[in-house]
Design a protein that fits this description.
Layout (H helix, E strand, L loop, with lengths): L7 H20 L4 H4 L21 E7 L1 E17 L2 E4 L5 E6 L6 E2 L4 E6 L10 E4 L4 E5 L7 E2 L6 E4 L4 E8 L11 E6 L2 E13 L9 E8 L12 E18 L4 E2 L4 E6 L4 E12 L3 E6 L6 E5 L8 E5 L2
Parallel strand pairs: 1-21
Antiparallel strand pairs: 1-20, 2-11, 2-15, 3-10, 4-6, 4-9, 5-8, 6-7, 8-10, 11-14, 12-13, 12-15, 13-14, 15-19, 16-17, 17-18, 17-20, 18-19, 18-21
Length: 316
Amino acid sequence: MGKSKFKPGIIITIIIILIILIVAFFGFRPFIPFLAGESQRGPQGWGGGGAAPRVATAVRVHTVERGNIENSVVVNGDVQVVNQVSIFPTVGGRITETFFSVGDTVRQGTVVAMVDPSRPGQIFSQSPVESTIGGTVLRAPVNVGDTVTAQTTILVVGDLSSLMIETHVPERFSNAARRGLNANVTLEALPGEVFRAVVDEVSPVLDPSSRTVRILLRFQGRMDARIRAGMFATISLVTNTRQNVAIIPRSAIINTYNSRIVFVVDDQNTALRREITLGLESEDMVEVLSGLELGDRVVVAGQNFLTDGETVRIVE
């Protein structure tokens, strides 16, 4: 069998030469047009028309206008019966009759149950148990045959015609909680609806374990029959209100280390950086004290990558 004409060293040398030629060809390709005399390629080419113009940034704007703004504290609470009492017997003994169940309506002074105080070898007259208030039976924890004492609850009766909301305000907001303070209430059972309420009672002391202040709110206007005791409520306490002031959406503001800035779009669609001073702040809007004028178009979307003096394109 004959030997190969090519030696390994020659093959390696050929490969190295091919690699050098490939690198040299592709490495000098950007200069080929110049070598060919094509030194001018137009405004976006190689020869000197400058870089391609930057595409205008798309932004959304909001016009500075006058409006009302409310500063609020949001807490959770529960709907409760304003007047709710437990009915007790005057003597201990055995329940022989009950006349009402949960959901029934009773009047003040109505007999709700009978208790037999008799003991073995002793017979006494049955003792009636009367309701001390009028309202609706909320709980009926005893049944006929149960043995009760003078401290046993026979019925729990409440006046459902007037409900209140109990909540607890954190200590840092305790000074803002005061009687007569307005509030907006939403209920989990009635989504999308807002009910007006007012603070009716504020505890004079803080709960030492939770560091909160207990407050009670009553609903304003006619009581909605759909609202029931025990419903979970979200309460927005309106601690301060300003009317007819310059307001902008909170989304327009860029927070820096020691200032608040926004971008305003002028008539030439140029974004201009403005430092502003804020007043009251709500969940969605803020009051502007200085730095903007009524009618200014403030960027509310797309402003995070803008620079002062940059051209923008307004979109709806």
